[in-house]
Amino acid sequence: MQGGSRESLATLRDDLDAVIRSGDLDLAALAEELFDVVALLDREQSLRRVLTDPSRSADARAELARELFAGQVSEAAGDLLAAAVRARWSRSRDLSDAVELLAVEALIASAEQAGRLDTVEDELFRTGRIIAGSPRLRAALSDPSAPAEHRLELVDNLLRAKVADETIRLVRQAVAAPRGRSIEDALDEFADVAAERRSRVVATVTAAVPLTQAQRDRLGRQLAEAYGHQVQINVQLDADLIGGLRVEIGDEVIEGSVLSRLADARRRLAG
């Protein structure tokens, strides 16, 4: 993606991260809704051009998207799609690419919640290598003259009960909608998304009151600088904390709460 599209994609990924952190949604279902939208945008190029038309205002594009998908997708998916069409894209195709990436990230996050992130990353890599190493299989899965349902049935027969559900869904996406890529290249891209998510440091932050977005962003920057990785922040509330924060990263606990400072003071006084 060119500069403007890269910036728009980065903002959308932040929006999706906020949805994932909320913990209130079925992320696999969200991913499926977004995959369906990608398929529509790929089929209807004129719609894609309208939704990315810079001569229309961002509000007009967002309103059109909301009207189009009203009753068809969840509120969370609708909000993400409205944000996507509000953004500026260097090419109309970049909108489809961005929505597909959001779908993949939502599904990968679903696998992470289920404790299958490492498994899915490994399975995507191995499946891509198997396909690349078998010309007959690659040809069968890539044949544009074969009905899509036949190719997807082949995927299911090969992988059912052998890999995670998320892996099967992503392989099906790569086969049904290569979108100008080879199947193995698509699977490599999906595996990279899983690897990026796995490499993130996760911090559980306990606070007395909810953090504002500005506080989250500032804390995220501080932790990323300290640990050398992007840090995903999960916040839980504890009114007994009184004030301040307690940050847990793996086995490490960073105490910054009023409660801990009072405890330290009591220990010093007790001497």
Structure, described:
By secondary structure, the chain is of the alpha+beta class. Helix content is 68%, strand content 10%. It has 13 helices and 4 strands. A 4-stranded mixed sheet has the order 2-1-3-4. A hairpin with a 2-residue loop joins strand 3 and strand 4. Helix 1 (3-22) runs parallel beside helix 6, helix 6 (92-113) crosses helix 11 (183-199) and helix 7 (117-132) runs antiparallel to helix 11 (183-199). The protein is globular, with a radius of gyration of 22 Å. It starts with a helix and ends with a helix. The mean pLDDT is 89.
Distance between the termini: 62 Å
| Largest sheet strand order | 2-1-3-4
Would you count the extended β strands for me? 4
Strand content: 5-15%
Count of helical segments?
Answer: 13
Helix content class: 55-70%
The low-confidence runs, each spanning 5 or more residues with pLDDT under 50, are: none
Sheet/helix structural class: alpha+beta
3D shape: globular
Whole-number radius of gyration?
Answer: 22 Å
Q: Average pLDDT value?
A: 89
- How many strands, what sense, and barrel or not for the largest sheet? 4 strands, mixed
Order of helices and strands: HHHHHHHHHHHEHEEEH
